[in-house]
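In the laboratory, one determines a bound structure by crystallizing the protein with its ligand and collecting diffraction data. In a computational setting the workflow is compressed into a single prediction: the sequence and the ligand go in, and a structural description comes out. We illustrate the idea with magnesium ion.
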Amino acid sequence: MVLFTGKGGVGKTTLAAATAAHLARSGRKTLAVSTDPAHSLGDALEADLRHEPVEVEGVDGLSAAHVDARALLDGTWGRLREHLATILAGAGVDELVADELTVLPGVEELLALAAVRRAAQFGPWDVVVVDCGPTAETLRLLALPEALSGYLERLFPAHRRAVRGLLARDRADARRWDRTAEALDDLVDELAGLRALLASPQTGIRLVLTPERVVAAETRRTLTALALLGLRVDGLVVNRMVPVPPADAAGEAARWLRDRATEQAAVLADVAGLGLPVRTAGHAAAEPTGVGALFELAADLWGDDDPAAEPGPAAPLLAVHRTAGTGRSADAEFELALHLPGASAAPLDLARIGDELAVTVAGVRRLVALPAVLRRCTVTRARLEGDDLRVAFRPDPALWLR
Ligand SMILES: Nc1ncnc2c1ncn2[C@@H]1O[C@H](COP(=O)(O)OP(=O)(O)O)[C@@H](O)[C@H]1O
Ligand SMILES: [Mg+2]
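The predicted complex, in structure-token form:
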């Protein structure tokens, strides 16, 4: 499974469609599927898509679909919700409150991804290419399985069967509790399965960006967030690269292009230091829609390489642990661990710049966006253990108001 995500408008849908077409042409049975409620995969493929996969004309072995999260929401989850609301109301919780309690944030996206998981595991596909929503949505979605399991566990603790014995008014009521407990167990299992698939080596996440500073900064924050969720980003794709004009080209247009190319080169140099494979795709003169244009774009992007087999980073990019104290108490301490291949043998420099940490190894600078918990901390010390840089942080009340 290959997921494409990134900021809105950078080209996720276009590159997912192009990559899926490319994979199908290489002889693999491929499904391109969109979980983004703003369904535009059909526009990119110039095909009329729906919930059930349809074969895409002009590419043997390629099928495509839009997940209909609304319909899924009204199905299984709707029944479970009703069930829960009845039980909560029966247990004395106000009916309106019970209704509110059973609306889980982001469940729509979760169901969309669960449908993709079923397609990936039980469908006839060799590869499933997923066109995800914009970064923020997707992040929430990818964090959901764990967050939701925790939420359900708090709402209905594992000893709920014992609770049911105390609360059930009669035998019919007790059976309702049992059915709900089973439905919840199924949901938690489904979430665990989803989480396992997302974190498995068979799943790759590609972050798409355009060669602009603001987009690159957001990409660094997304990388940090995904790394903390234990999800593996195995490559970056920089889309819409402009050509560099010849040095002697004169005129307004040539100057504009040269300026654009200069910023683009600076951003490329920046993302090259993130420790991930970086690929580029050129800015096509005409909007790349339809299989012909998509094949061309994919050839530019992948050449003879296999899009499903990006090697990815050698080790997790970063990890954060609490090393002392609780909450943000004065004695709390956190450690950020960064894997920096070759660091032990090279000169190393470290600087805190606002919400980022700049690490320079052997003359190559890497900017790491700090996770939220560390932004309100100051760096107290740093040490190198082999190729792992360990930086200690302490909460700093002076930074809390920022
Ligand atoms: N390499 C490219 N060259 C030219 N236009 C592109 C390229 N990639 C994407 N586009 C265009 O940019 C717009 C946004 O792309 P899209 O794939 O829909 O982005 P996203 O899915 O990230 O929101 C579309 O009109 C698309 O055709
Ligand atoms: Mg899109």
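Residues 8-14, 40, 239-240, 281, 283-284, 287-289, 297 surround adenosine-5'-diphosphate (ligand 1) (CB under 6 Å). Keep in mind that any predicted model is a hypothesis to be tested, not a measurement.
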